[in-house]
Amino acid sequence: MNRSLFSWLALIVTLLLCFQAAPGQQTNSTTNDKARDAALRDKAFDLLASLADQLSTLQSAENRARMGSNIAGSLWPHDEKRARAVFKLVEDDIKFGLQVEKRAPNAEHTFQVFYKLRENTAERMAEHDPELALAFLKETVSFVNEYARLSDGQLLPSIAEQERQLELRLAKRIGAANPEVAIKLARRSLANGFSKDLLPVLRRSSKDKAQVLELYKEIVIKLRDADFGDWQTFQFAHSLAQSYTPPVADESTFRELIHIFVTKALAGGCGKQPSQDADQRAAFCGELAPLIPVMEKLYPFEARRLRHWAAEPDGFTVELRRAYAELNELAEDGSIEEVLSLTSTYPEMEGNIRLRAMWMAESAGDWEQAEKIASNYNGDPEVREAMDERLRYYRNFTAIAEAEWAERQKNLNNLPLQIQAALLLNLAHNTALRDKKTSLKVLAQLNGVVDALPPGKEQTEKQIAMAALYCLANSERGFAIVEALLPKLNELIAAGAKLDGYDARYLRDGEWNMTGEGAVGNILTILANNAGYFAWYDFDRAVTLAGQFERSEIRMMAQLKLAQGILGGPPKRFPNSARILYRY
User: Fold this and answer.
1) What does pTM read for this prediction?
2) What is the DSSP string of 180-216?
3) Which residues pair with 171 in a beta bridge?
4) Are 139 and 91 in contact (CB under 8 A)?
5) How does pLDDT run across 189-222, given as a tens digit for each residue?
6) Hey, which of 10, 44, 145, 230 would disulfide with 563, CB 3.0 to 4.6 Å?
7) In terms of Cα–Cα distance, which of 198, 279, 208 is closest to 233?
């Protein structure tokens, strides 16, 4: 590879990394902006209500359930009564879809589609009414069991595990708001084994301390007879002992948990000195190292036989390990606000907590929020310097990108068209909200590169991405591009319908399915991913444009995505076009 091309590929990597963290700040909303946003939300809710009225016109139970579930979840804050009614219709369609004959053509695919619809619908319900979600699962589980039951009467293991994981996801989601329900779900899951998701349920359900402590005791009792040779079970118990400790955990139950580790460690041969050869005993006993100081504190006589497995002190106390476990958990599953709330529980970790929250905001493209998170922190100098480094990056990003671009611009034409397009797309994205003038110049150049690409799937995908960026840069050119594309899209959809079963399964019950399957389905998915950009630039025009799709089910889905784009708030970053937003 020549040096020039290598340098360009390095630039691609650099820009892609920036792409993940970059784009835009929104200025503080003025009174007019707030009024405009409120008016747009009203229009979005009106559109959702209109789409709800049209659900009965769809012939496919899959499409009715998918669109209805999305509509009900989005409509709930505005019209709860109507949303509940739509959810009820969705339940009926999912019940119908789950009653597929095992010998029917594509039976397994059909079942999995409706099973996934059931999961996503339950999660949407749980956001608003956990009891409704549980009732929905109870009403539909018999249909799942009927299909998944084996000849010996047992459930297909994969479905049983999916059911368990679904219940735990719901328990994690609703734990803080409804600990009683969350613990009920966790207890049912515990009956079928151990899962790392039980730990967040314990922490997030802390409002009902008595029930949490009871569940904790049940977990520890079950661990007495558990096989720690099973790695998943051992890792669960290990995480429990390190991250759920007194004073949060019950002192006597915690002591019993540590005693279980002592007993199993001695029974597993950890009382013997480590040998030169790596073996299963060494792997198991070595993992116990972080717990040995706790064992020695609570059970000094027995634990002295394990001392040779202890690791060198690393400065991580039991309390610090618990704090980091909770921080990691919330950073993965929670919101920025939940992460920041940890500063009141662990004030000594405020710097690390704020850095993690800052990274979350940056990854979402909200640099303004990241700056607010960093403000007024005057603790650890190293943490403060790390924050200041990120702030300097935000403030100088446009200049850095433009300087780099000026340096590399002369070699652009020597690169393959696909790489040119990727570079230009990233640069236009990075500057769209911060430097619209530069972004429009880059987009003009990109337009020529995309036109030079061979006609086909890649060119169409780039055109859609480019159109969204024009909207982000506040240019009507984005709508002009999509308006020119729509006749071609309708032709592709018609061709896809004729090729159903050859290229991909595009249709179900005579209607287009929305799973993003096949080349045409992927193009439509990319368009759906970017709906928010068109909606926020000109909602009425975007709705009218979506109305030009010839198939009514695609027209309805496009308008649904536009409404959801408004309700999701002004776009702050350009989505990865490979991401699939259609949900089963």
Assistant:
1) 0.80
2) HHHHHHHHHHHTT---TTHHHHHHHTTTSHHHHHHHH
3) none
4) yes
5) 888 888 888 888 888 887 788 888 999 999 999 9
6) 44
7) 198
